[in-house]
Design brief:
Number of domains: 1
Shape: globular
CATH class: Alpha Beta
Distance between the termini: 34 Å
Order of helices and strands: EHHEHEHHEEHEHHHEEEEEE
Strand content: 15-25%
CATH architecture: 4-Layer Sandwich
Largest sheet: 6 strands, mixed
Number of helices: 9
CATH topology: Purple Acid Phosphatase, chain A, domain 2
Length: 295
């Protein structure tokens, strides 16, 4: 049996047309070229040789069906549709503008119908959490961590897993307790470090207000971590912050991906970067690396 290889993409922020800029709080210099970069990524050797491609949210920049169509069309042309698994991000599900609170239920239904349609276009599950075992050594659990039904741009980035989803995750983890390698995939970071901790790690420091606006509630974070520890989850994979992170929290390895379609810059020129994981056929050990695609 060969080693099992996984590629982890996140925060693609694709658009319906190639020349459209990414939604971000910039008057000038908003990023473009995400679609072209995604085409390069899926054509790369590392993606083509991966057994599984996990996308941890923000596939689209504005949640529109035309962009979902571009995503799945590009995936199909790369001949990797059956190896792709997606969990949604806040840009796929939530509101980027202002809404009227008196029709909250209508907005919630519209948001979920939109993302479900996009996921179904690629044959993806739409009930969360889900469990996917592409190999006897491995099971991946998908969570929807989005703050569903929000009403302003100020709350768009907040995360929310919810009690019932965590309850169902506990049942799934127990059901797959004999599988040696368990991985949880979600969009939001379940642990954004305090400013002082981030500075010590040499990472971007988030203010208290930024942390509140980007992470899931503390009770949910603690419950999720407890489930990971109890059921020996190897990796918790996420995106959302557009930062490369690799840290251990009470023994569980949390890995955050950068925005895969956002260029990084080095001595040899710009490149695209995303995490990769390999499950050993003999020992079931998981090794984590970084793939680079030149632009």
């Amino acid at each position: 049996m060969n080693n099992f290889r996984i590629s982890h993409l996140s925060d693609l922020h694709l658009t319906a047309k190639d020349n459209v800029a990414r939604s971000e709080p910039k008057v000038f210099g908003a990023l473009t070229g995400m679609n072209a970069h995604f085409r390069k990524i899926v054509a790369s050797k590392v993606i083509q040789e991966s057994n599984l491609v996990l996308v941890t949210g923000d596939v689209t920049d504005r949640g529109d069906i035309d962009t979902w169509n571009f995503f799945w069309d590009t995936v199909e042309k790369a001949n990797i549709t059956d190896r792709v698994r997606v969990v949604p991000g806040n840009h796929d599900v939530c509101c980027l503008g202002v809404r009227l609170p008196m029709i909250r239920k209508q907005y919630h239904a519209e948001d979920m119908a939109k993302v479900h349609r996009g996921l179904l276009m690629g044959g993806q599950p739409t009930k969360f959490p889900w469990a996917y075992s592409p190999d006897p050594r491995l099971v991946v659990f998908g969570l929807n961590s989005n703050n569903l039904g929000n009403f302003t741009v100020a709350t768009n980035a907040m995360g929310d897993i919810g009690y019932y989803q965590l309850k169902d995750l506990a049942s799934l983890l127990h059901k797959h307790r004999e599988v040696p390698v368990k991985i949880i995939a979600m969009h939001h970071s379940p642990n954004i470090p305090e400013e002082e901790t981030a500075i010590k790690r040499g990472q971007r420091a988030f203010s208290q207000l930024d942390r509140i606006g980007h992470q899931v509630p503390v009770e949910q974070r603690r419950m999720l971590n407890l489930l990971c520890v109890t059921h020996k989850v190897r990796l918790l994979l996420h995106g959302h912050l557009h930062m490369s992170e690799d840290r251990r929290i009470t023994g569980v390895r949390y890995i955050g991906a950068t925005a895969s379609t956002e260029p990084q810059h080095g001595p040899q020129g710009p490149f695209l970067q995303f995490p990769t994981y390999q499950v050993s056929a003999k020992t079931h050990r998981v090794s984590c690396n970084s793939a680079v695609v030149p632009i």
